[in-house]
Specification:
Layout (H helix, E strand, L loop, with lengths): L7 E2 H7 L6 H9 L3 E3 L2 E2 L5 E2 L4 E6 L2 E7 L9 H4 L3 E3 L1 H16 L13 H12 L1
Antiparallel strand pairs: 1-4, 2-3, 2-5, 5-6, 6-7
Helix pairs in contact: 1-2
Length: 129
C-alpha cells in the first residue's frame, strides 16, 4: 500500500468507496452541493487525503465519514468500507431515519412508475385526510 498516492480526486474517491455507481454521478452530487469536505463546499477535482471529513448526501441518506484510506480502483464493497469510518453521530442518525421510514413510510413510495387510476384515487383519498 505504500505505492498509493497521498492524495486523490474527491469524485474518484467517492466512486471507489461505492457511494456512487459512476464518477459522473459523484461529480453531479458534488456540483449540486450534496458533498462537503471538512465543512466547506468542494469541487470534483479537489484532492482529499487521509483524515479528511466528508458530509455526503446521497440516495435520501446522509453520511458523515472520515477518510481512512485512498484507492483509485473500485473494489468489492467489503474492501471499499475500509476506505472510510462513519462517525457515531452519523450511524445513530441513519438508524433513526431508517426506523422512521419503517414505522411511517411515505404515502405512495411503493408505487413505481405512473400511477394507475386506482392508485391515483388512493393517493387523493390519503391527501384529503
Amino acid at each position: 500500500m505504500s505505492d498509493l498516492p497521498p492524495r486523490l480526486r474527491l469524485d474518484k474517491w467517492l466512486w471507489a468507496a461505492r457511494f456512487f455507481k459512476t464518477r459522473s454521478l459523484a461529480t453531479a452530487a458534488i456540483d449540486g452541493g450534496k458533498i462537503r469536505l471538512n465543512g466547506s463546499q468542494a469541487k470534483p477535482a479537489r484532492e482529499i487525503s487521509v483524515g479528511d471529513r466528508l458530509d455526503i448526501g446521497a440516495h435520501e441518506q446522509q453520511w458523515t465519514v472520515i477518510v481512512r484510506g485512498l484507492s483509485s480502483l473500485r473494489r468489492p464493497a467489503p474492501e471499499a468500507r475500509l476506505l472510510y469510518e462513519e462517525t457515531a453521530e452519523s450511524l445513530a442518525r441513519r438508524a433513526q431515519q431508517s426506523e422512521q421510514r419503517q414505522l411511517a413510510p411515505t404515502p405512495g413510495a411503493d408505487i413505481k412508475g405512473r400511477p394507475t387510476k386506482r392508485d391515483g384515487r388512493q393517493l387523493r383519498r390519503i391527501s384529503r385526510g
